[in-house]
Amino acid sequence: MSIRGYQLSGLIDMNLLKAGKNFENLPESYVIFICEKDVLKENRQIYHISRVIEESGNSFPDKTHIIYLNTGKTSQDELGKLIEDFYEEDPRKMHSPILSQRVKELKETNYIEEGEGNTMSSYLERLKRQWKKEAVAKGLAESEARMAKLMGILAEEGRIADIKKASESEAYRKSLLQEFQLI
């Protein structure tokens, strides 16, 4: 993530607090990151992040809440049902009556058009496409690095015929990558 939770929270606080006012005047605030995968990698569906005074171990009472929601993990509890609703396009199939009603209202007022122009689902689809592009780009970069390393090893060992054969056969490239433990 390009902006950390507390940095974002600080930006919110800055806009809420009037000049000369005490920090105690800040309202309780929530920053919620809805993530398609487990960015904190602890195999949890939800993470509540709190500030702690390291020297004492006491909570810092700033009324700021940061939550990471991993929509890639499912469950049958209330949170799991809400996550299912994020992916459901038909408001009649949603678990949350509030979310269902709002999506229905938006669709009825043509704020959300059906099909490709569906604002809510197309936003999620754009996110998914972006994440997929990033994953593909990362995979390509890793693949290119492995291939460059393989070509360097083969060149050092004088295996020019193997370089030529690898350029023509995907199966042969894969066997060379396995031979040199590059995959």
Care to describe what's here?
The structure is a single chain. The chain has helices at 5-16, 78-87, 97-108, 119-156, 160-168, 170-179, and strands spanning 29-35, 46-49, 64-70. The chain is mainly alpha-helical. It has a domain at 1-73. The chain has a three-stranded mixed β-sheet, covered by helices on one side. Helix 5 (160-168) packs across helix 6. It is elongated and about 75 Å long. It starts with a helix and ends with a helix. The mean pLDDT is 80.
Tell me the overall shape: elongated
H-E string? HEEEHHHHH
Identify low-pLDDT runs.
Answer: none
How many angstroms does the end-to-end distance come to? 28 Å
Whole-angstrom Rg = 25 Å
Number of strands: 3
Largest sheet: 3 strands, mixed
Helix content: 40-55%
User: How many helical stretches?
Assistant: 6
Our estimate of the beta-strand percent is: 5-15%
- Average of the residue pLDDT scores: 80
**Spatial order of strands in the largest sheet:** 1-3-2
Backbone structural class: mainly alpha
Protein traits:
mainly alpha; 3-stranded mixed sheet; 3 strands; 10% strand
